[in-house]
Structures are given as structure tokens and as C-alpha cells.
Write a structure and sequence with these properties.
- The protein is built from 22 helices and 13 strands.
- With 502 residues, it is α/β, with parallel strands linked by helices.
- The strands form four sheets. The chain has a five-stranded parallel sheet with strand order 6-3-2-7-8, sandwiched between helices.
- A hairpin with a 2-residue loop joins β4 and β5.
- The radius of gyration is 23 Å and the shape is globular.
- It starts with a helix and ends with a helix.
Length: 502
């Protein structure tokens, strides 16, 4: 009998997830031991998806289980129309979430409850602005994806010309972006004498706090220079590194949580590994997350470089390849001997040498750790999900290592192959002839260039918004062109073989 069937037989009655039904949950399911009626808000989190609930919310839940941080409860928030659907799902279950940890040999579930409200999602974001302007909110945190910070792809500075930003400058009281809402709330707090809040990015960006500062302060400066100076001087923007593999929720995850005896409309599955490394720079106080496993340090950059280059960069290497070869999940990719060998060689020989050890973890040991985590067959993390938004993820996760390799005279052949595989994926068909559905905000443009690159590979790396001047570096340009020609002539597997045998 498999895990699902065993749980199903034990829990024929499925308990709807609500505060009043917590006592009725199956005995193995951990649940809040704290009195949620005693919780008061301290954090607004914008972009309240699966990752936040499996990661930042979990750390806060652990503190609350120990009787601490009761005045730091989370208010959820979103700025896109689809966030309202999520709000309604969570509101119907008293903002409780079932987290299901999937280890290779076991399944365990816990219900967490650190979120106590979710701001209605409305055009112009007035409810969000008003909530963030209240004195009890001392941290505004975000998970809005790597590509959501309005960074100019060429200069890496603030993209003041973006239509969303232009809207928020023209109508600052009815913004369209999360950052416009933050600026509007900070404007009210300054006027009221409420004081600043900490702006905490939890996205996979190196120097995410500095990038968030750039976005918020630059937008404010286009509206009111004095307000921008006040935000820059009084708000804090700690850099942080976050890590936990959290797949999207679909019918399979809904069925899984029901097999455990719980009716949760928005459950979250996750691996058994978490890491959160944060600069201790909070202008209005913070929970003691370090008591439950988070790390406060002045050396966040070293941690985030290792994680972003090996895990996030490795994800792009594996997922793009999986899409081209019709391999559905990251774990399935790692079960393929050649894909696994490609990841391991690139990570060990072309990425790890540029990284520093952290907290008794060497880059080589971290590669081994990521190899094991990627290989967990219980984590159904689709190659499509991981390959999404390559136009942000390759410049953020992979291309910086290529630059370091070129500067150091180090190997970059495997990374050039990884970029050629991305170009192959963006052509829009798999090797079995099936179509790859659009999977990037700039998919149409990428597809046009990828098709032209079939006969002239350099066209792909001449997209300077992603590659900068890399096309001018002969060592990279020659390697990239070699691999893309080989991929189109002989197939991806032949290219992998060529690299592994070199």
C-alpha cells in the first residue's frame, strides 16, 4: 500500500481546514498551539504565494509555537487581480495553511497560522496603502519574482521609463505597482509621524535589499525628492537569502492533502530543507527568527552568491534541458544519467571555483547538497515552472558566472552550452516535435531571435539586454556558436556528450 492509500484508509473523513475544526484534524497533523485570537499584526507580506507560506511564514509560526512574536502576525497582500482569488481561498479557511513536507522516504503535514488577514485586492491599492500606513506594521516584505523590480536590463539601474512606473509617477495616490503602494504608505506615515518600516525583499536577487532600495527610493524621487530622502535615510532594506524548493499547487497536491484527511483549497508541498540568511538591519524591530534557525549575518552576499549561482543557476541548466527533451520534473531530469552529469560537471568545475565557503559549507559540498535536493522524487517541481522567465533568471543566475569565468581565464564551455540550450528551448518546440507553450514575459521576441539563431547563433547572444557585451568576447561567442550549431545539427544529447567527453 502506498503512502497516499495508507493515509486515505486511516482518514476516511476529510476535515475542512478552519480555526474551529483544528481539534478535529487527524492526530499526526501538527497544528498551532498558540491562541490565534491573541495575535496582532506586525508584517504586511506582498506576493503571498506558496514560497512565502512554506518559508518566511513557517519561521514565524515556529516562533509563535514557542510563545514568542505574538505581535508580529502577517497581513497578506497582493497587487495583481489573481491575488484576489488567493485571498478568498485563504479567508474561507481563516488564513490557515497546510504545509506538507515531502522527504524521499516520508510525508508529514503541519497546519500553520501566523497570517491573520489578507488585504482586499483593489485597483489603485487603497486598502493596501491604508494598511501599510498604520503604526502596527513595522515590516513590509515581498516575494514578487526576480523580474518584478523594474530593473533596466542594460544599465541594471531603475527602469523609470516602464509604463507601470510612469503610471505611478503620474497618479501616485492610485498606484499600479507594489512599490508605488509602499511609497504612498510611507508618504502617509511621514505626514502622520508614524515613522518608517523595514522593506524586506525575499526574492532570489543578489543584493535584493539594495535592489529594493533602488526601486522604492527612485520611484519616490520621481514623485517627491524630500520624501525620497526621508525614505532613504530612515527606512532599512536588509539583504537576505531565502531557500526552500516549493512546487506549485495543482490537483495532485490538493489530492495529497485530502489523502492526509484535510480539505485545504491552497495547500503547499515543500522539501525538508530551509535556509534564511538576513542582514540584521531592521529600523522598526523584528521577530527573533534566529531562534528558529534563521541566520543573521553581515556576510549575506557570500551565502546568496552560492545559492543563486549553484541552485538557481543549476535550476536553469536542468529545466531548460528538461523542456527540450520532454522531461517533466526536475527530479526526473536528475534521474537521467546524462542530465545529472552535465549539472554536476558545470556546477563543480565552472561555478563552484568562483564562490567562497560559508559557515563550514564549501562550494563543492553545496553542489553535492543541491544534487541531492534536486533528485528528491517526492518534489514534483515541473521543468516548466522552473524554466519560467528565463529572460530574468539567466541574467541573474547564470551570466554573472560566465563573466567571472572569462575574467579569470577559467572554463566557461559548459555554461556556454547551457545558454545554447536556453536558446534552443526558446525556439518553441521540443525534440519530439511538441510545442513549448509561451513561458516568458518576452516569449514572442525570444522565439523570433531563437529561430534566426538556428542559422546564425551569434544573433542570440547579441541580445544585449540579457548578455551585455558577451558577444564581443571571442571565447564565449565561439563556444556558444559551436554548441548551438551542434544542437540543431545533431541534437541536445550529442552536445551533452560532446561536453562530457571533452
Amino acid at each position: 500500500m502506498n503512502d497516499h492509500a495508507r493515509h486515505k484508509s486511516q482518514h476516511d473523513a476529510i476535515v475542512p481546514l478552519r480555526l474551529d475544526s483544528l481539534p478535529d484534524l487527524p492526530a499526526p497533523v501538527s497544528r498551532p498551539t498558540y491562541d490565534r485570537a491573541q495575535l496582532t499584526p506586525g508584517i504586511v507580506h506582498i506576493g503571498l504565494g506558496n514560497f512565502h507560506r512554506a518559508h518566511q511564514a513557517w519561521y514565524l509560526h515556529r516562533l509563535m509555537q514557542a510563545g514568542e512574536a505574538m505581535d508580529w502576525a502577517i497581513i497578506g497582500a497582493g497587487v495583481r487581480p489573481y491575488d484576489e482569488t488567493q485571498r478568498q481561498k485563504l479567508a474561507a479557511q481563516d488564513y490557515l495553511t497546510t504545509l506538507v513536507e515531502l522527504d524521499p522516504d516520508s510525508t508529514s503535514a503541519e497546519v500553520i497560522g501566523p497570517m491573520i488577514d489578507y488585504v482586499p485586492v483593489q485597483k489603485g491599492h487603497d486598502p493596501l496603502i491604508q494598511r501599510m500606513s498604520q503604526a502596527d506594521i513595522r515590516i513590509v516584505a515581498l516575494t514578487v519574482t526576480e523580474g518584478g523590480y523594474y530593473i533596466d536590463p542594460v544599465s541594471k539601474g531603475f527602469d523609470a521609463a516602464h509604463p507601470d512606473i510612469q503610471h505611478d509617477v503620474a497618479d501616485p495616490d492610485h498606484p499600479t505597482t507594489a512599490f508605488g503602494a509602499m511609497v504612498a504608505a510611507l508618504k502617509q506615515r511621514r505626514k502622520q509621524g508614524t515613522g518608517p518600516f523595514t522593506c524586506l525583499s525575499c526574492d532570489n536577487l543578489q543584493g535584493n535589499g539594495a535592489i529594493l532600495r533602488q526601486t522604492v527610493v527612485s520611484l519616490a524621487r520621481l514623485q517627491d525628492a524630500e520624501l525620497a530622502d526621508w525614505i532613504d535615510d530612515t527606512c532599512s532594506f536588509p539583504n537576505s537569502m531565502v531557500d526552500c524548493i516549493v512546487p506549485a499547487t495543482g490537483p495532485q497536491e490538493i489530492e495529497l492533502v485530502q489523502s492526509l484527511g484535510i480539505d485545504d483549497a491552497a495547500p503547499v508541498t515543500h522539501e525538508g530543507f530551509r535556509q534564511w540568511v538576513i542582514e540584521d538591519d531592521f529600523c522598526a524591530g523584528r521577530p527573533d527568527w534566529d531562534k528558529v534557525g534563521a541566520t543573521f549575518t553581515d556576510h549575506v552576499h557570500d551565502y546568496e552568491a552560492m545559492k543563486i549561482r549553484i541552485l538557481n543557476g543549476g535550476h536553469q541548466i536542468v529545466a531548460n534541458l528538461g523542456e527540450v527533451l520532454s522531461v517533466a520534473t526536475i527530479a526526473d531530469c536528475m534521474a537521467d544519467e546524462k542530465i545529472r552529469a552535465l549539472f554536476k560537471r558545470i556546477a563543480m568545475h565552472e561555478i563552484a571555483p568562483h564562490l567562497k565557503p560559508v559557515s563550514q559549507m564549501t562550494p563543492g559540498a553545496y553542489v553535492d547538497l543541491i544534487e541531492r535536493r534536486f533528485s528528491n522524487p517526492r518534489i514534483v517541481d515541473t521543468t516548466r515552472r522552473v524554466a519560467f522567465d528565463g529572460s530574468s533568471r539567466h541574467p541573474g543566475f547564470v551570466i554573472p558566472t560566465i563573466r567571472e569565468g572569462l575574467a579569470a581565464g577559467a572554463p566557461i564551455d559548459g555554461l556556454a552550452l547551457a545558454e545554447a540550450i536556453w536558446a534552443r528551448m526558446c525556439e518553441g518546440t521540443r525534440e519530439d516535435g511538441s510545442q513549448i507553450e509561451p513561458n516568458d514575459p518576452y516569449w514572442s521576441d525570444l522565439q523570433d531571435v531563437a529561430r534566426m539563431a538556428k542559422s546564425d547563433p551569434v544573433i542570440w547572444i547579441e541580445q544585449r539586454q540579457y548578455f551585455g557585451d558577451l558577444a564581443d568576447h571571442a571565447r564565449f561567442s565561439v563556444a556558444f556558436s559551436k554548441w548551438l550549431h551542434m544542437i540543431w545539427a545533431d541534437g541536445v544529447v550529442a552536445a551533452i556528450d560532446g561536453y562530457l567527453e571533452s
